[in-house]
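Slide 14.
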Amino acid sequence: MALRQQQELKQTQKLSPLQMQVIKLVELNSVELEDKIRQEVEDNPALEATDTEMPQTPEETDFQAEDDAAAVSQDELILGDYASDDDVPDYRLNASSGNAPQSREFTFSSEKTLIESLQEQIGLHDLDNRKKKIAEYIIGNLDENGYLQRDLKAISDDLLFLEHLEVSSLEMEDVLYEIQDLDPAGVGARDLQECLTLQLQRREPDSVTQLAQRIIEDYFEEFSRKHYDKILRQLAITEDDLRDAIEEIVSLNPKPGNAWSDSMEMAMSNITPDFIVESENGEVIMYLNNQNIPSLKVNRDFSEMLQGYNQNKESMSLNDKQAMLFMKQKVDSAKWFIDAVKQRQNTLYRTMQTIVNLQYDFFLTDDETALKPMILKDVAEKTGFDISTISRVSTSKYVQTNSGVYPLKFFFSEAMQNEAGEDVSTREIKYILKQSIEEEDSTKPLTDDQLTKILNEKGYVIARRTVAKYREQLNIPVARLRKKI
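Slide 15: predicted structure.
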């Protein structure tokens, strides 16, 4: 096949460096933006952070930086990879009471880890060096919940291969029993059944504890599936006896290692909100949470030095020209970054203000049933932004209201119709479904068929399979597993 030349006319769309920078910044939450700004200020001597905070309600601008430096050359900017969109769970976080929520900061605890605590405890036991080494190796294989998920034979093989230490199965079991005597109770268990048994063995051996221990040891599957009738028949006990034993079991900790990670989880669960929405005197006010985000400007010394170089171009040496090029690149980069941050703030503000307008009744009353159906397209049409921009804004962002902190995606939901043909939010249906389950008789929990009937009577035309799907999305088990005696 002969080679030939051919002309082709086509249209392509390319993002400018500023647009690429904005896309990257829009994806960041307020904490990540703070880190990004700090890194940029450290890397670029032409960029300077002031002592004042960034405005909480940015006004519309043309996104041009201060005109005290050379013009920006787009080709001189080098931008990194795009950040990925992380999905945010669709649930409410940290509900709190009070009428004037304040933005918060949280730090991680520097206390000992579970592994460090266990290693310190085992060092106090009367074990020879060989057994201590085995114990430390087993402890190192515990997961964050305090469980030993690996088989002892596999750990024994590792000891032989890595430490040249041959250990029998019986010796491994003996050392594991030593670990299971450590605090917290239940640590070193190989499954939930063993974990609960270890904790019950440390309690006072009264009749309730003994019954609870027998249920866990001999009827664990029936207990897990809540087949209480079978347990009552097999043990010939009363419902009161079984209820007391269940309360004893429920008081145990299924994840004993969590006691050492609570401070970390608490820090992780307390989200720094990106937006603050307050409702006072029948009015809803929204602003950005810029508590730790400084205002930025181009370093004046850099700007003046660059202007001096520009005025003496003709007499400059090669080194001076290289210095001027370096300074120009840094100043241009600083200006682009300042403009990108400004546009990012404006994009977030306009998007959140539109969400507040669309969900005004919810922010005014904090009533989840007041939420209206809303999808990304609705917000995009109101703001004039592309749907992909709205998606980036709503990812990994949180809003603090009078009643708690919510992920931004909480406010997006599909629409369904009621009997009157009106559009209602699927979140409203889920809220009523959850409320119905919370108010049910725990001895006779509502089945999916009964829940469907309740929703239909309230005017929501919904099928049983849809009720089952919403119940699963709310992490609510089936009626049989919700049953109590």
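Speaker note: Residues 318-358 form the longest helix (41 residues).
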